C-alpha cells in the first residue's frame, strides 16, 4: 500500500424509479475518466479523471477487494489508514465487523 491519497469513484446503477421513468445513465466510464453525457447519450465535453473509476456494473465486493481490503489489512498490522466513503443518503457506506473482527458485510460505495 502506498503512502498517498487516492480518489476512487463508483458510478451507481439506476434506481428502480429511474428505470421506470426510462432515464439513462448520465456518465460514461473510459480509462478512469468519467464523461458527462447529454440527453442524447453523447459526451457533453465535461470529463473528470480519478485514480480509479468503476462503472455501474462493478460489484461492491470488487471495489472492496481492490481498494478497501488492502487498507484494512494494513491497519491490522499497525499501519494507519482511512477510508472515506461518500454517497447518497440511504446508500450503504459502512464496513461491519463481527466479534472476531472479520468483515461480515461490506457495502462501501461511492456514488455519482
From TrEMBL:
According to the entry, every stretch annotated as the Kinesin motor domain falls at 4-112
Keywords, in A-Z order = ATP-binding, Coiled coil, Cytoplasm, Cytoskeleton, Motor protein, Nucleotide-binding
Where in the cell does this protein reside?
Cytoplasm, Cytoskeleton
Main localization (coarse): cytoplasm
Q: Which InterPro entries match?
A: Kinesin-like_fam (IPR027640), Kinesin_motor_dom (IPR001752), Kinesin_motor_dom_sf (IPR036961), P-loop_NTPase (IPR027417)
Q: Which GO terms describe its cellular component?
A: microtubule
Molecular-function annotations in GO: ATP binding; microtubule binding; microtubule motor activity
Q: Tell me a GO biological process for this protein.
A: mitotic cell cycle
| Family from the record | Belongs to the TRAFAC class myosin-kinesin ATPase superfamily. Kinesin family.
Q: What is the recorded name of this protein?
A: Centromere-associated protein E
Record the organism: Eumeta variegata
Amino acid at each position: 500500500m502506498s503512502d498517498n491519497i487516492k480518489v476512487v469513484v463508483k458510478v451507481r446503477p439506476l434506481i428502480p424509479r429511474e428505470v421506470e421513468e426510462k432515464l439513462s445513465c448520465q456518465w460514461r466510464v473510459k480509462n478512469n475518466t468519467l464523461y458527462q453525457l447529454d440527453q442524447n447519450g453523447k459526451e457533453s465535453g465535461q470529463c473528470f479523471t480519478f485514480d480509479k473509476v468503476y462503472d455501474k456494473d462493478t460489484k461492491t465486493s470488487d471495489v472492496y477487494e481492490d481498494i478497501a481490503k488492502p487498507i484494512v489489512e494494513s491497519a491490522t498490522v499497525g499501519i494507519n489508514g482511512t477510508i472515506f466513503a461518500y454517497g447518497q443518503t440511504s446508500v450503504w457506506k459502512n464496513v461491519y465487523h463481527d466479534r472476531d473482527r472479520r468483515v461480515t458485510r461490506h457495502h462501501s460505495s461511492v456514488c455519482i
